[in-house]
Amino acid sequence: ISILFSNFKQIDKKGLWYLIVEDGIIQTVANKDELHISNQSFSKVHDLKKNYLLPSFTDAHMHLSLYTLLYSAINLRDCQSIKEVQEKLKKGIGRELIVGWGFDHEQFQEERMPTRKDLDTISSEIPIFILRFDEHIGVVNSEVLRHLGINQDTIDPEGGKIGRFLDGQPNGILVDKALPTEDILNNSWIKNSMRQNLLKVQEEFFRKGLTSVSDMGINFDTLDFYRDMEEKGYLKMRVHVYLNEVCLKEKERIEKEMSKNGLGLVQVRGLKLFVDGSFGASSGALYEPYTNDPNNYGLLRILPEN
């Protein structure tokens, strides 16, 4: 397949230009006055009519799989109060799982994090999970706590924190490694929509000029999903993968996956490790305590001895 892009401008060059693509590879870029193509035939010809032709964009740091998984989630980014969050989440009534994403409690009129009690007013029977925009802290309702087996006696996981009310009962706020992100998003309703969501995400990216993206801190299951999507012809964009700390247990497989680089669209580029939390979740590790929480020094997700 041979494609011609004609009559376009370049930002840093004068005149009009031609570009020839053969079998998906750019073969020729030449000034219109220097290229004689009258005898060549092309499968497609795109006359750009003196507009600019630009290279596509690359997003070097994003979380493609989480964005894809949450594509069907309720968008909470614009919420200015817990009440707004509640109103938006009510739209999910009828689903087997209600997921919201993107809230920022520092913008809320109430000047606090939501708790399970706020989510229980929507439903105490349907599992509800909302994730802050930085993905280091989230809130679940009582049904999710029950499902996860989290109660007053549950010990904080290493590198994570279970929020509690003054009486010691869990308040639904979960931080870093206490987050049940993978467990919640393993729900059949979301898992079944993963493929369709990725196709929609891919179309959205192409409209914005993105053809190469990254996915930071994923596991082997997600990598297998991308490879399957490419093998079946669904994946059209480049995906640069950075594996998480769990994958370090299988170093031979990491080497095997990296040996495939250059053979397709999905390439394993490295590792993304979280040493500590984030300041938005008050879990970034500090030598001195947080001024608004004298007993909190943050969290180390990977201990020095490990």
From TrEMBL:
Citing just one GO molecular function, the answer is: hydrolase activity, acting on carbon-nitrogen (but not peptide) bonds
Q: Any idea where the Amidohydrolase domain is? A: 45-291
The taxonomic lineage of its organism, from the top, reads:
unclassified sequences, metagenomes, ecological metagenomes
What is the organism field in this record?
marine sediment metagenome
UniProt-listed SUPFAM superfamilies: Composite domain of metallo-dependent hydrolases
Parts of the chain that traverse the membrane = none
Query: By what name is this protein known?
Result: Amidohydrolase 3 domain-containing protein
Question: Entry's Gene3D superfamilies?
Answer: 3.10.310.70, Metal-dependent hydrolases (3.20.20.140), Urease, subunit C, domain 1 (2.30.40.10)
